[in-house]
Amino acid sequence: MTTPSRVRIVESADVSADAAVGDGSSIWHLAQVREQAQLGENCIIGRGAYIGPGVVLGDNCKVQNYALVYEPARLGDGVFIGPAVVLTNDTYPRAINPDGTLKSAHDWEPVGVIIEKGAAIGARATCVAPVTIGAWATVAAGSVVVKDVPAHALVAGVPAKRIGWVGEAGVPLTAGEGAGSWICPQSGDRYAENDGVLTKESA
User: Fold this and answer.
1) Could you tell me the residue ranges of all domains in the chain?
2) CA angle 167, 172, 174 (to 5 degrees)
3) How far apart are CA 23 and CA 201, in angstroms?
4) What are 61-81's pLDDT values in tens digits?
5) Alpha-carbon distance values, 80 to 63, 133, 136 (Å)
6) Among 96, 104, 117, 175, which residue's Cβ finds the most Cβ atoms within 10 Å?
7) CA Rg, the chain, in Å?
């Protein structure tokens, strides 16, 4: 295991010797980080969280208590995973094959959830693979995501549907003065919506 000097791993955590943990990262009580997992710099893995084999986290990610991040999930920089979130990896889950034999790792192909830079997944939400959560999007607590989420989208419900837009500050945007114009009430940043795609306007 790659462990730079500023890594903190508490004694009760279970971190594979084959995992790579970035400088400044912390792994807390009863968390498990599996083989070939890669954690970027300054990541926080909360109590009881699970990071599956080969999962990749960018820098500055937070995975809160008891979240389950199954392989082959990919998280960009600055991603927030709330408490008890589940990122699944099996489109057609079964414990056994049609002949009644127990399924092994060779009997199915894992598919992953991709979460892009700055996105946030609220507590107890479930993302059903394969889906991509766009950059800076927010998934509301308790939602079930079954299709891709655009960048900056605010989605909620079962199944999750877009109910608004959010800026990089995570605050819901308010309508601006023209069609497709949106403003962040916290930062003042302006965004433009075209054909269901939101982009930040340059300063």
Assistant:
1) 8-168
2) 95
3) 34
4) 999 999 999 999 999 999 999
5) 6, 12, 10
6) 117
7) 18
44 close to 24: Cβ distance less than 8 angstroms: no
Q: Can you list the residues of the chain whose pLDDT is less than 70? A: 1-5, 203
C-alpha distance from residue 60 to each of 120, 129, 144, 176, 195 (Å): 12, 23, 25, 32, 32
CATH number for 8-168 (one of 2.115.10.20, 3.40.30.10, 3.40.50.1950, 2.160.10.10): it is 2.160.10.10
Q: Is the dihedral of CA 180, 162, 57, 55 positive or negative?
A: negative
Residues 6+ apart with CB under 8 A from 147: 131, 159
- What long-range pairs does 12-17 form, CB within 8 A, spacing at least 24? 13/45
131 in Cβ contact with 147 (< 8 Å): yes
Output the pLDDT for position 2. 52
> Rounded distance, CA 19 to CA 1, Å?
5
Q: pLDDT of 85-106, one tens digit each?
A: 999 999 889 999 999 999 988 8
Q: Please tell me the predicted confidence (pLDDT) of residue 28.
A: 98
